[in-house]
TrEMBL record:
Protein name: Small integral membrane protein 1
Keyword Membrane: yes
This protein's UniProt keywords: Membrane, Transmembrane, Transmembrane helix
Membrane-crossing segments per the record: 48-73
Organism: Hymenochirus boettgeri (Congo dwarf clawed frog)
């Protein structure tokens, strides 16, 4: 019984018949959809652009929330 390996290629040089044996498991090399999506959007030039865009969007969201909150907190009461 062989141990479970995570890699897609298993090479066994020493076996009972003294022959080289190479086993390829194609299902181990297929990434899930979320992993491909993450790799595409979070690495490389697109990843840097997404992080910059996300940072700017977060800045403006916090700025607008603070502005609106400050407006209502410091609003002068009318008699």
């Amino acid at each position: 019984m062989q141990p479970h390996e995570t890699s897609g290629v298993q090479y066994s040089r020493w076996n009972e018949n003294s022959q080289d044996q190479v086993n390829v498991n194609p299902s181990a090399t297929v990434f899930p959809t979320w992993r491909r999506f993450y790799t595409m959007l979070c690495t490389g030039k697109i990843g840097i652009a997404m992080k910059v865009f996300g940072g700017l969007a977060l800045f403006w969201i916090i700025f607008i929330i603070g502005y609106v909150t400050g407006y209502f907190v410091h609003k002068c009461k009318q008699m």
